[in-house]
Amino acid sequence: MHGLGNDFVIVDGRAQPFRPSADAIRLICDRHVGIGGDQLLVIEEPSVPQTHGRMRIYNVDGTEAETCLNATRCVVRLLIDESGRDSLLLETLGGLVEGSRCSGERIALRLEAPRWEWDAIPLAAPRDTLKLDLASGPLHWPTAVSLGNPHLVCFVESRDAVDVPRWAPALQNDPLLPEGANVGVAELVAPDRLRLVVWERPGILTRACGSGACAAVLAARRRGLTSERRVTVEMPGGLLEVAVREDGGLVLTGPAAVAFAGQLPEHLQDTGPKMKERQP
Ligand SMILES: N[C@@H](CCC[C@H](N)C(=O)O)C(=O)O
């Protein structure tokens, strides 16, 4: 499935648990010799009462991510299609997310309030997360925010003028960020419209990033660049709508599309050494 071209291999691990090794994850996500995708997701049985499923998110290098909001919309759509429910609650490492269908392919996610404290990002040392004293070429003074996963957002005059693969890795891998960070390069084109591109962990440029879109809107508001509560975020793959609720939580709305479905071939179901899983 994909959300604006941010694409995923989704394995149903409910009837038959699927705990892939790091090698298997890398192979499945490989666009040349595997299936290909920006992340691998595994749907599991819920472990918390009142929730309808649990989702694990693996990056292309085999590491586990806490949050992926384009992927969450896709899994919500799958589970809604399957169950006939109007809305459901999904468990992720990054927290609980409530998802509902707006119409057709459009799915809305209700998210808990983001975290701004330095140790929630996490940073290696106390800092004011509004503007971190970091720079790489035209990217400087990023704002840090956690949507369950860590984000840095840099504001620039022109998003398209920045050579993101050249400059973003230095910020992503700065020692101040022990877990790394997704690096958003954002241009405010109107109070209610941002243009954004995200250099995601572990070093890939994606066509869209749901948590990155939320991070950019939150950072723009916190820096006083806009006071709008509803902002459209334009990414290379298309548009996402972010609304900031009165209670500080968010609603993210966008499409979730099916590309194809099939059976995972045996050679991609590696049973080798398991990766260390993150704990909630
Ligand atoms: N594409 C995602 C974010 C995926 C996880 C990220 N690479 C990380 O390591 O935090 C989204 O839509 O939110």
Automatic annotation (TrEMBL):
GO molecular function, one term: diaminopimelate epimerase activity
Pfam family, one: DAP_epimerase
Assembly notes: Homodimer.
Keyword line: Amino-acid biosynthesis, Cytoplasm, Isomerase, Lysine biosynthesis
Annotated metabolic or biological route of this protein: Amino-acid biosynthesis; L-lysine biosynthesis via DAP pathway; DL-2,6-diaminopimelate from LL-2,6-diaminopimelate: step 1/1
Biological classification of the source: Bacteria, Pseudomonadati, Pseudomonadota, Alphaproteobacteria, Hyphomicrobiales
SUPFAM superfamilies given in the database record: Diaminopimelate epimerase-like (SSF54506)
Residues engaged in binding substrate: 6, 39, 59, 149, 182, 200-201, 210-211
UniProt-listed GO biological process terms: lysine biosynthetic process via diaminopimelate
Sites marked Could be important to modulate the pK values of the two catalytic cysteine residues: 151, 200
Catalytic activity from the UniProt record: (2S,6S)-2,6-diaminopimelate = meso-2,6-diaminopimelate
PANTHER family reported for this sequence: DIAMINOPIMELATE EPIMERASE (PTHR31689:SF0), DIAMINOPIMELATE EPIMERASE, CHLOROPLASTIC (PTHR31689)
Similarity annotation: Belongs to the diaminopimelate epimerase family.
Enzyme kind, highest EC tier: isomerase
Chief site of localization: cytoplasm
Localization terms from the record: Cytoplasm
Protein name: Diaminopimelate epimerase
Function summary: Catalyzes the stereoinversion of LL-2,6-diaminopimelate (L,L-DAP) to meso-diaminopimelate (meso-DAP), a precursor of L-lysine and an essential component of the bacterial peptidoglycan.
NCBIfam families: DapF
Gene3D superfamilies: Diaminopimelate Epimerase, Chain A, domain 1
EC number: 5.1.1.7
Residues of the active site: 68, 209
GO cellular component: cytosol
